[in-house]
Amino acid sequence: MELTTHSIDKYANSRFEDSLDKASCLLSSCIYGEKQFAESSGWLRIDNWAGESDLDIIESIAKNIRARDDVFILIGVGGSNNAARAVIEAIGLAPAPKTVYAGNSLSSQAIGQALADCKDRDFSINIIAKNFETLEPGIAFRIFRKALQERYGDMSSGRVVATGTSGSFFESFCKKHGYAFLPFPTDIGGRFSALSNVGLLPMAVAGVNVREVVSGAQDMRARLISDSGETNIAVRYAAARNALYEAGYHVEQLVSFEPKLKWFHKWWVQLFGESEGKGGRGIFPVSAEYPEDLHSIGQFLQDGSPFIIETFLDIIGNGESIVIHDDDKQDGFGYLDNKSLSEINRAAYKATLEAHSERLPCMQLTIPTLDAYNFGQIFYFFQFACYLSAKLLGVNPFDQPGVEKYKRGIYGRLCGI
Ligand code: PA5
Predict the structure, then answer these.
(1) Cα 361 to averaged position of ligand 1 atoms, centre (Å)
(2) d(CA 291, CA 173)
(3) Ligand 1 lined by 104 (C-beta under 6 Å)
(4) Per-residue pLDDT for 417 more than 80?
(5) Is it the case that residue 55 has pLDDT exceeding 90?
(6) Does residue 361 have its Cβ closer than 6 Å to ligand 1?
(7) What is the 193 CA–ligand 1 centroid distance (Å)?
(8) Per-residue pLDDT for 318 more than 80?
(9) What is the pTM of this model?
(10) Residue 274, ligand 1, Cβ within 6 A
(11) How far is the CA of 220 from the centre of ligand 1 (A)?
């Protein structure tokens, strides 16, 4: 995986070098963990929560579910399901139970559809909740427990795996009702939990090789520890964002030419949005799917107000490619004869990057192929770069005080307070 930055210094009014120095100074304290964030930095050391024994348990639970069920209901919201969904929707393997997502919506239609997906099919639940106070997963859990009870009666408890905080009310609730219980890491917040039971169990159920995911993350950690200064890709990325932010670029758009990455985009948006948007500061994260969105916001990027940083995910190898056949009907697309879609996609990618980087600061993260190993690499890379970036910005990456406000508002209305 490589990071290329295009003319950052030009757009950042020569602040890049200065930001690189600042980020380099923060590197060693961050990579080994800082005392002030000890309760939130368990993800830094991957073995803590994705060691050999954790992986054995995950694989054994996943194996049973895969052998038994047609549908796997993944209940969780935000950090409790985004990482798993990013991987499953990109590289989940058949045959596997179909993963159906719940606990992230209050729509009757959406929940009704998830219930319909279970009709006449064997199903089980993984509820993931760090606090088990969040409304959306709480509602879905209640509804799907009832559905399990109606279908399987006394046998239904064997079809629930809960991932929650050890020693919490949720754990006693689950034990009382006979549900399997896996720990949600006590020292990791939701959006940093990809490499733990939270992200890895659902991935394993979908047939993803979670050992490869972990190995990619381990290798990225080793690389970030050994590379210093501007040779370190997390330092470069965080420094570029910082310099550009100070120069007035307050939006970053993550883009790719691979629709399968849609849910990875969402994971990234949450990671940066919730970690950095506080204290009146932060780069607003958005994402786009090209080439489709080139036909909507492409015009703005090329010609509108210049306040956006664009970060391209550049996937080099992406499986087999369809070849456009010869066509003798003179449809005007003769120049495409015998070209592969990957070749055409690559041409579109390069043309877009070239055009946009003439106008905007662009970065490019090159990923050799979309597989489990590389997902591990990009999860760890972005988590760590986000931590560094938030430090440069001067905010706490691990809290989310603003989210609590809306939650209090809902409870007030529903409880008549
Ligand atoms: O990243 C975070 O901390 C949040 O997005 C949480 O994951 C999300 O709010 C869900 O929280 P919980 O698992 O406690 O329901």
Answers:
(1) 32
(2) 48
(3) no
(4) no
(5) yes
(6) no
(7) 10
(8) no
(9) 0.96
(10) yes
(11) 25
